[in-house]
Amino acid sequence: MTIPPPSAGPTSSGDSLWSRIMAHDLTYLFFRSPLTVVAAVLSVAIILAALMAPWLASMDPFDPAQVFLADANIPPVWQDGGDPRFVLGTDDQGRDLYSAILYGMRVSLVIGLSGVALAATIGITLGLIAGYVGGRVDAVIMRVADVQLTFPAILIALLVNGVVQALSKGTSRETWAFGVLILSIGLSFWVQYARTIRGSTLIEKNKDYIHAARLVGQPTPLILLRHLLPNVIGPVLVILTINLGLAIITEATLSFLGVGLPPTQPSLGTLISIGNKYLFSGDWWIVTFPGLTLAIFVLSINLIGDWLRDALNPRLQ
Amino acid sequence: MLAFVIRRILQSCMVLLTVALLAFTMFRFVGDPVAQIVSLDTPAEEVRKVRESLGLDDPVIVQMGRYLYKAVQLDFGISYQFRQPVIELLAERAPATLELALISSFLSLAIGIPMGVYTALRRDSLFARVFQSISLVGVSLPTFLIGILLIYLFAVTLGWLPSFGRGQVVTVSGRWSTGLLTASGLKALILPAITLGLYQMTLIMRLVRAEMLEVLRSDHIKFARARGLTTRAIHFRHALKSTLVPVITIAGLQLGSIIAFAVITETVFQWPGMGALFLKAVQNVDIPIMAAYLMIISALFVTINMVVDLLYAFVDPRLRATIKG
Fold this sequence. Notes:
Distance between the termini of chain B: 10 Å
CATH architecture of the largest domain in chain B: Orthogonal Bundle
Helix content of chain B: over 70%
CATH superfamily of the largest domain in chain B: MetI-like
Structural class of chain A: mainly alpha
Strand content of chain B: under 5%
Strand content of chain A: under 5%
Radius of gyration of chain A: 23 Å
Number of helices of chain B: 13
Shape of chain B: globular
CATH architecture of the domain at 114-316 in chain A: Orthogonal Bundle
Oligomer: heterodimer
CATH class of the largest domain in chain B: Mainly Alpha
């Protein structure tokens, strides 16, 4: 997704991509805000670490052959009873916490990204249709959006989860938990996209280029995708960023509440939920390190989202 | 105006009806209600009788009507896991959730508004920056993590406050069990209320700050300055007043989501409220409870939304004009 550079004049059009990026207003604003740079570095580092989990981790926490119950609840290396094999200690099943966090982060990221992608796809499609077609279709879509907006996302996600659980009796949780989490997130977050896109579509659809496209006789789907979409997608960028943080929190919350991923496929939320059980016996590390990773990552994403919102807001410049 | 009120009420009823339809669909088609009641070795004759007594052989429309008719009288059927009327279960737990939600919203308003005003007026001071950063952390930390953190700090490490339950409860006027009248009940309320209220507090703080900054730039504040009023009077009599209208609206709307978010807080603190009951229902596929909770919460949301909308129309002359037009 690219934003047309407002400052790039005709002279810079022949330059390389890199120099065009560096000359961009956003790049300038980005390096002006040290906090945002730190947040960006942190999120990129966490994402990379999660992607490269198989190479960075000392063991595969999903592989039962590598996990031994005898290693359970070992404290971090710097505490009494620590084991140099497990830098951050182990959880209740003897999984190395450092490796489990890397793999768990990967699970959280995949679910968060897919959930947000699903939400954006549903929202953008419905928003475009509602705005462009108008009339009764618009009324129905927006009424549904209004109703849904009155419910918090977590409640919708819980309901979706409960219904799927009821419908899939007999099959084990492992087979569908992943998809259900993505579906829950997708169905709870689409409204914002739909409203934003519909708003800009209402303005754009009366402009000359759309009339022209219609006069040439282009089919409606093509007009929507080729002409309308690129001109209304801008504001969605901010929502995407902020929603990614929310989606990861939602996944973690659902897993913590025990309706998300099973303990055999731990995400950060599952790890925190396991740690919560051992908090009273003094095993603080199981909850602390996954919790810290989650908090730092979401905070970084929110910082970037905040900055992006201000940077793209013409009123503040 | 009257037309607007009537239209708004009709709209709310439509929403509720849609939700009820959804609840009925869940109730009727997700899982077999008969299978939940009878055991595996029940004779076929018994099963048929149960089916008949539940009215499952009637046309779907009739069943739907019956479900709605009963729901209006607050009869939501019998819970699969507890074998008790759902409404009794919910009524038993409602006081715990409502007390928690009300205290939390009160806390978030009482702390959030002053913090927001302060950060708006002293934008560049050290405290304002600290508050701003804290608010971002508050938005980024998941509720359950905050709860765990508080438990670890104040219950496990320091041992000052209980980590679970409601403490000692007194029953007032026959039905309402309250924890507000005993020392242990109040102590048990502190951590859950903070956990639940923190997010709302940061939300309100950021909202008040943004609104206040906006209002301070507006013409009527410039005029107040020109009149030579004291800064104090300008800030607190004029600016704050116009700031608070949208803030109160949002706070009202948030009351609903506080009750919904209580699901998480109640789980972390093992608080015996409706949210915990709902979660247990989701885990055990107890459809009657899920459907009833869905309807009660949506009735609450819709009512709050409607009242806020109507109040807005009465308060804001601009809106009144567009309604007439």
